[in-house]
Amino acid sequence: MEIQSKQGIIQAQQALIDKTARQLKASGDIAFTDNQIHITSDNMGLDLASGSLSLENTEYQMLGFVGRGQAQHIDISNQTGINLEGVSFTTCPVGHEDWLIKASSITLGPGEIWGEARNTRFYLAGVPVLYLPYFSFPVSEQRQTGLLFPTLSSSDRIGVSYEQPYYWNIAPNYDATVSPRLMSDRGLQLKTEFRYLTESHNGQLDLEYLHDDRRSDLDEARYFYRFVHQGELSENWQVSAEINGLSDDNYIVDLGSDFYNRADTHLNQNLQLWYFSDNLNFSAQIKDFEIIGNHPNSYRAIPELKLDYHQDLTSLLEFRLNSELAHFENGEQDSPSATRLHLAPTVSLPLHNSWGEFVAEGTLLQTFYRQSLPQGSNLKESVSRTLGQGRIYGAVNFERQIELFGDQMTQTLEPKMQYLYTSYEDQQQIGRYDTSRLLNDYIGLFRGQEFTGLDRISDSNQLTLGLTTRLLDDNDTEQLRLSLGQIFYFGDTRLSDNNRQEDRSALAAELDWRISSKWFVRSQIQLSSVNQRVERSNISLDYKLADNKLIQLNHRYVRDIAGNEIDQVGVTASWPLHQNWHWVGRWYKDLSTHRTIESFTGIQYQSCCWALQFVAQRYLSNRFDALGEQSNDEFESGIALQFVFKGFGGKDSARSLLNEGLFGYRHPYFLNN
């Protein structure tokens, strides 16, 4: 039989109603269900006057979240909620109770997001490990104030570390996390995170503070701060900010960071305002840096204003104006500062259709400089530079149906060509404020620029040729992409900053190949046109059965970057060892110095309701000495341990282990899916 009451639905084999006492008693395969809990019981009593329900010798399953257990006695009332006595609780399935909570009573108040347990004993594999006289736990998926799961780790630089986060749900659109971190070798660090979200704005403020570092020679506190913000001021106006700072060069190296790594040389300090419309875009920003280590101070753009306007002149011709006004300084008295105004009006003829495109355009590059110079400078206070630039670009797409290894495929052939001419003007009287040399890959061959920024614009008379071929299956999934390209120069450049002597650029090639459903190759290479030596290359080979079952081999090489050679080989792997065990490993070796630069291994045990992660790694410390010089010879080692109860929050994904350490796992190809 089935009885529907205000409390929920009651099912039982027999039921007896006492009209005088207004009570209902049921027996035999009793089941009770409401919007919070499903209960099976031997005996049940319902007070029809008060609406209170009592059940004996029960088993229950929570419906609002993962959780189940047994109870000797359960009382359910609209006024007091749910009260369980002699109760057990777990998120594990029946017969696999890896962890279990037993309590004398558990109370779930009506409308409450926390449950309360008294005289609580925690069991792991049937063994009692902890007793708490009072314990509260979440009973919904809402964000809730309380302790998060801690992190335990150990390393050469900090000793044993215990971090205990506490989450504060301030309001539906505000929250904070406070994480005291006790380090045996360094002391007590406080880490805080504050987040906010409004209808038009969102942001985050992070503060980290260590009052007294026992292992540091510094006599002052160590700290790190970070503030990020994004927002809409109106339909067309947006604002963003990113501000970072730290107390000393070795803060990230010694104490770690969730936002930067040991190889970073500066922290960003940006404030930006945008305006967008159909024909006009405007941005104003302040670009500053916090320099880490003994590196030359970078020039700050304080401020940088950009205005871009475009308009159709006719059905074929377009007009575009790109303009910029910026002031540069780097805080050094013996370095020049400058205000730069750049105007670049362009008239273009763009033609596009499904089988190709053609663009012809002419641009006037007009730049004005007002420079504040130190004594003895060879620069000029006022400089006006006028350059003309013409560009013709064309691309055609061919395709045909072919049969390859018994499969019908679509092959494309996509030749492209670009002719670029830029006039010459001597630019030695202009300082270099935001300009450095660019490295060319296949896409960069068609960029038409040798430098970043505007302080150096190289004269050019060149032809760029490129060819791409693709193979697509019946589902239009890209199985292979091969691209080759090169620039041919019709004469030497006259710009002294560009010491190119060859009549052609390096040959740039890129390959993306989905060999099968499990094997993938991604490769890039630049081959010198003078001596046919490899200038830069990287290649990765992936074997991937699933997101958590993969092996990647990779190699990268750069012949000359800032006077150094990079020649590194590495392997990354993620593989299940057993039904509940998972392993992740990573190893990188520098072939130039014949040494391992990083080794990392992680083991995770994951059951249906809890997980345990153990990580060990060794890596270059990259510490700075008193002069700000970075060491390339010191190594550090560390281990970390994390325990997670499923159903109570926390990270338990084995794949997250892949993203830790100096080199994280990256998907090796850019084929469309």
UniProtKB/TrEMBL annotation:
Protein name: LPS-assembly protein LptD
InterPro entries: LipoPS_assembly_LptD, LptD, LptD_C
Family recorded in the similarity comment: Belongs to the LptD family.
Keyword Lipid metabolism: no
Localization terms from the record: Cell outer membrane
Record key words, sorted: Cell outer membrane, Membrane, Signal
Biological function: Together with LptE, is involved in the assembly of lipopolysaccharide (LPS) at the surface of the outer membrane.
Assembly behavior: Component of the lipopolysaccharide transport and assembly complex. Interacts with LptE and LptA.
Organism: Lacimicrobium alkaliphilum
Limits of the LptD C-terminal domain: 221-581
Keyword Transmembrane helix carried by entry: no
PANTHER family for the chain: LPS-ASSEMBLY PROTEIN, LPS-ASSEMBLY PROTEIN LPTD
First and last residue of the signal peptide: none
